[in-house]
Amino acid sequence: MRITCPICGARDLREFTYRGDAILLDRPSEDAGPEAFIDYVHLRDNPAGEHDELWHHAMGCSAWLQVRRNTVSHEILSVALAREVR
Amino acid sequence: MADLTPTTPCAGLGLPLDLGDVILVQVEPESITAIIPFPSTRAAADAALREKWGLGLPAPGETAKAGDDEIRWAGLDEVWFLGPGFREVHDTLSGHAAITDVSDGWARLLLTGPASADVLRRLMPVDPSALSPGQTVRTQLAHMMASVTARESGFEVMAMRSFAGSLVHDIEAAMRSVIAQSSLE
Amino acid sequence: MPRLPERGLIDRNRTLKFRFDGTQLTGHLGDTLASALLANDVRLVARSFKYHRPRGVVTAGSEEPNALMQIGQGRAVSPNTRATVQELYNGLRAESQNRYPSLAVDFLQVNDFLSSFLSAGFYYKTFMWPKALWEKLYEPAIRKAAGLGALSGKDAEELFDTAYAHCDLLVIGSGPAGLMAALTAGRAGARVILAEEDFVFGGRLVSERLEVDGQSCAEWAAWAVAELDALPNVALMRRTTVTGAYDGGTFGALERVADHMATPPEFCPRNTFWRIAAKRTVLAGGAIERGIAFPWNDRPGVMTAGAVRSYLNRFAVCPGKDAVVFTNNDDGLRTAQDLEDAGAVVRAVVDTRPDAQIGTWGRAFPGGQIVSTSGHLGLTSVTIRDLNGVETTMPADLLAVSGGWNPSVHLTCHMNGRPVWDADISAFVPKVGAVPGLTSAGAAAGRFSTHAALADGAEAAIAQLADIGISASPVEVPDAEDAPVAITPFWHVDAPGRAWLDLQNDVTTKDIALAHQENFRSVEHMKRYTTLGMATDQGKMSNVGGLAIMAELSGREIPEVGTTTFRPPYSPVPIAAMAGRHGRDQFQPHRHPPSHALSLERGASFVEAGLWHRAAWYPQPGETRWRQSCDREVAMVRNAVGICDVTTLGKIDIQGPDSAELLDFVYANAFSTLKVGRVRYGLMLREDGFVMDDGTTARLGPTHYVMTTTTAAAGQVMAHLEFVRQCLRPGWEVSVTSVTDQWAQFAVAGPASREVLNKLLDVPIDDASMPYMSCGPVRIGGVDGRLFRISFSGEHAYELAVPARHGDALVRELTSQAEARGGGLYGMEALNVMRIEKGFITHAEIHGRTTADDIGMGRMVSAKKDAVGKVLSTRPGLHGPERQQLVGVRPVDPGERLRSGGHFFDEGADVKPSADLGYATSVCHSPTLGHDIGLGFLVNGRARLGDRVRLVDKLRGGEVLCEVVPTPFVDPEGGRLRG
Q1: Cα–Cα dist C70/C97, whole Å
Q2: Chain C interface, Cβ < 8 Å to A
């Protein structure tokens, strides 16, 4: 598998680490209460199809990336810097 | 008074290693200063660098050179200034960027010769032939976090200092493999 | 001798000696082991998997099911090697497999006489009970009788490499389609990799006697390869099998670098496993000929028709003198012509098609079938049934069979694609688009004529390159034969006797019928029940035949039956090749701290901490056990001074206007309140409220901190800080930089620590200038360093950091100063003992399931600010008496030993999971106290100080009665720390 890092270009999978659902970018505010945090930390959709994910280019530029990927075909539809998508 | 005679990262590792078509030597330590501009100060950092050294912040994958000084892209927000001392860079850019001395954090090697790209093909998932002189990548080299920069004569390879033993071992193994295969039918 | 004069691609001037089952034979450069054996008239080369029936060479390629051999000897023996792909070399030693005592006399052939009992599912049904006998008796006996070759059982000493390649266009296969694709792309300047499984480029072109562009097809192939070889943008990779197709245009490929020599040159790998990143790919892997199932079709001398042509035309070997051809398509008829031209006697041509136009080779049997064969160790005769049902038996030592050709669809199935049935050629063809970026061409796409393959390869290359913006000019397609595919499907002969589908696994048509009868009708069930299509050949020859019979039995069409799943690898790949150089002590890279050279000189034992190799203890003369060294080192630190390399702890430099905000957010406790020049212990939580890591952070300036992490979690914490900085707080002006390798850092611990430092520092320190938990810049021998007054030992201690180039010199200076005061170096074992004596935690305690409250630090979670993990750390169930809390334990009898991992139970309680009260995490012998001590987690432990609990070790046996005690064990008031 290859991911096109917006900074480095197309790179081999082994440079990246999968870090879970991109919902991690939407951290609730401190006063949102435990329920909101439980959703944020634990509750995940498991879509067969397009899914926004977080990947870390740990062995490359160290950018955190939001990757839109089809979980059925593994096709990567888009890659963006996590800090620029929110 | 204490005698703190310095040692180089690759001391005792059998360098230089000359196998004819490929040669590995250590790049002697010089000053490396990591510069990480903050979002609001990036332009100011760039301007200060240009004013003092005539070199700006390079784009991803690029290097900028003036004489012996070089600014090398090193990551998402980070560049390395190779040449001037830490204090000088710090005083020039203070307030515009995080300035960190990383001179001793890296082992630096120069791999040259016509077979150098073939050697790197056995070590890293990035295509060495696609890099023109002055281009630089951060990648994984034989399971190590690495920085690889193309030169006219070959490639400069950097990995963190504590990895120096494995870095030299793995590059040497790949060099010997490539040379051994060049004589096969 | 079967060797033919004046033809083929062998070098008759290079004679090679080899041994097969001990017998010395000769062949030529350019031979495979199989062709050399056939040239020596060796027909019996193997015994079959289950029935131990005599078997011969069937094919001339990697689909070979029979001729599996052990190559080499000693450690480097390579079992299950297909003789049809093994290049001959001087000194090659091959042994047949699965026979006892020899190929010609195999006692286990008794299985063949029991064959009516050994049908599909036999083992499942017969060895059901008694259950206890399965592991001890049945399975070992069956495995011994049915089997493939054996590994040497020793470490391989040979080298393997991994490597990466990149290209615009990957061309898989170098037959007519592959060569044209490579020429088209190569001339257009694209970066091309042409991968060929064989050691000769050309695919079928080197095995046929056809004309291309007015010359022999082999000559044309050589010309094309020469042009490609001269193009700098084309990489020719022969002996390279593309074994798998993966996401994003990535392919795995095995290059057999040195399988064609007895011993590779020094430093040369035997194989290289390539990972190829291709922007576009043309699969031109050709097609594989399939057999026809007829009674007794497994004897040595029965071969595929195409293989016969390969041996005749490429290897100059005539595999028989009296030949019969059995075919259901026109392609098989070419074999009769080639045989006759080579001087063999073609006794008969049997074509299942009643209307077949058969030439003048021997007797013609249109609409005929082979109904039986005979010959114990090799074919001696065949029995033919003609259109009218009249049977004729005639002598024959070679039977060339063609059941049609199956395109090599395998790679197109590796990403879940299913092939599509093409009725015109009676075969599956690749599903278009099944592997993104890959297109099939030539025979691999079901376009079988030479001209069609040439044209298809050129067109495929142009289309693929256009996709990535490279414009390639059409290349003139050379003249070549363009015969249509003429085939009438014919799968099996209806006549008495066993008819094999899968020669490798001894699966016959009756086994398929039995599977059907017993309702294993899904094709995947049928495969598992009969083992059809398993093992090294993965059903390359047999799969479609099995499906056809399933279809017939169930009254369905072949496409309705479907196919089993082809998975990587296409052909076997040694695991060692995937590992490359990264095995044994090179499994992962090593990290060495600056004291490494000194530790080696001092004879230290080392312990791995992540990738780091750290000194565990430094034995002195007379010390034979680690405890002696460890106890001495602890006493040395407690009474004098010790030096320990702590460079391995993660060091993260944090700068910027928002650095205090970042630290307040990632630590449970506050750091914005820390004064410049001070150090504070910090506790880091995960967002789910559990502890992630701990360490000290020093404030070097108003907007400058340096954080310390544990050695184990350095990478994880760095990634976490980047996550917070980039994902959660992208607006903050703050940087994080790893400086772990930049600074050599040494602990100087013990009552004489300051004395040692003041011998070295340019400006001495005292308690006023450097109080407990302070930090500041220092100079040592003119070098700028950093000094931290922190302690992990409980003693008056410091950590001194200098740029790493000075680390080796500094640790030597510190050690010699320490030794002058009765101190010296100490290692990880002593460090660990002292931290347990002080009740300090490591990742043995913060192992991912403990909360701040569990380790007695609940009140460190600041209520005044937001922080990662703060909200969820307040969840019910994460604190309170129901939790297992950190406590100290010591044995009631001071002579008893504690063991970590043991579980706590109340006195008198049954030892069962429901009564489990917790477990010991860290234990050691405390030389300071003279007895064992331990840390552990105990339910409601903080309320149970003074209670007695049993520490039960079910794993190693034994239990110890312990008293629950507070920590620290040593110097609870901390007087030594501050003094």
Answers
A1: 7
A2: 164, 246-250, 275, 277, 415, 436, 687-688, 719, 722-723, 726-728, 730, 866, 870-872, 874-875
